[in-house]
Amino acid sequence: MTFEEMWAELLPVGRSASSGGYRRHAWNSADAECRAWFEQQATNRGLAYELDRNGNQWAWLGDPRGDGAIVTGSHLDSVPDGGAFDGPLGVVSSFAALDELRDRGTEFTRPLAIVNFGDEEGARFGVACIGSRLSAGVLGREQAYELRDADGVRLPDAMERAGYDPAAIGADDDRLRRIGAFVELHVEQGRYLTEDQPIGVASAIWPHGRWRFDFHGEANHAGTTRIEDRRDPMLTFADTVLSARQQAELAGALATFGKVAVEPNGTNAIASLIRGWLDSRAADETVLTELVERIRQSALRRGEQDGVRVELTRESYTPVVDFDGPLRDRLAKRLGGVPVLPTGAGHDAGILASAVPTAMLFVRNPSGVSHSPAEYAEQADCLAGVTALADVLEDLACQ
Ligand code: GLV
Ligand code: MN
Ligand code: MN
Ligand code: MN
């Protein structure tokens, strides 16, 4: 099956007819279809299929218990109303690169694996990269058991309902120890690869995290409550959003409120509670910490003025990731001196980098749009990505 055929098979899975975007959220039915697709691709190629203790899927060429394995892959889940490329491009390219290497008659001296990490986007349980975090021991089993989705469903229950056994979730040291290198191919998510640069290599991932602001006010009648009697958390929230943007610009960093929940969410009622989720990222950890603190101080100040109590909870945090230097240089050299660039987007590769020599390849994104149905990459660039990945895997798995 060619790259184009695999792409066409995955394209309709979990796609909204109205927006064209995807809702492949962890353990939902679209995710299950993607997982079935992955398993089918593995068995079609005679690869050994394996589901690990955290629900990540593996397809092995060579001995899954062998040492120094070269692993590639990405994820198949999406953000709410996400694009087609973020995640799937890496998985489809991995199968296509393996096919290309078989066509070349490459003889591997190390095991090679393709992986689909579960719940990379964190769209359902609020923490990104759950599959890789669990495996790397960065997310503890007890913490994972407490995660709930918007309907109150706990992560282990969601796994169980989808037919997976959550009993064994936790750090997978043995598996990670046997990996010699992990390379994730991903669509670039900004507009940082220019006209004559279809492929890049990642240098680093900015530190980033998610914080939940709870603004507690008082529900009351929209038509009868005097202005001076109101404790309206919407005002505090709105002011905090503006302040976050201002502070981020001053710091040369990023701060985004992209998700909000309102209680009771009635048009003719002052809200009692606003929950706003802040995603913030910066090139430097100190800058990021100071930025979030400044946003918090500003929310507290405004809350006092509005009679609104403000609480802040950090839901996840990923420190700066500097990818393995020798591996990064080796990839860039093998690909003929392609650009080396940092990214503000999180990836499973960033999580694995704490345990395994890890690198990333980026495929050009002409518009720079991502986490949106409009996300796009040219077919020619995707195919260039497949060849680049094949070249890199050949270099690594035949030594
Ligand atoms: C994941 O794509 C992230 O960077 O939030
Ligand atoms: Mn993403
Ligand atoms: Mn991704
Ligand atoms: Mn991501």
From TrEMBL:
Pfam families: Peptidase_M20 (PF01546). This is N-carbamoyl-L-amino-acid hydrolase. Allantoate binds at residues 210, 268, 281. It comes from Kitasatospora gansuensis. Its EC number is 3.5.1.87. Its cofactor is Zn(2+). Belongs to the peptidase M20 family. One of its GO terms (molecular function) is metal ion binding. The lineage of its organism: Bacteria, Bacillati, Actinomycetota, Actinomycetes, Kitasatosporales. PANTHER family: ALLANTOATE AMIDOHYDROLASE, ALLANTOATE DEIMINASE-RELATED. Zn(2+) 1 binds at residues 75, 86, 186. Keywords: Hydrolase, Metal-binding, Zinc. Binds 2 Zn(2+) ions per subunit. SUPFAM superfamilies: Bacterial exopeptidase dimerisation domain, Zn-dependent exopeptidases. InterPro entries: Amidase_Cbmase (IPR010158), Bact_exopeptidase_dim_dom (IPR036264), Peptidase_M20 (IPR002933).
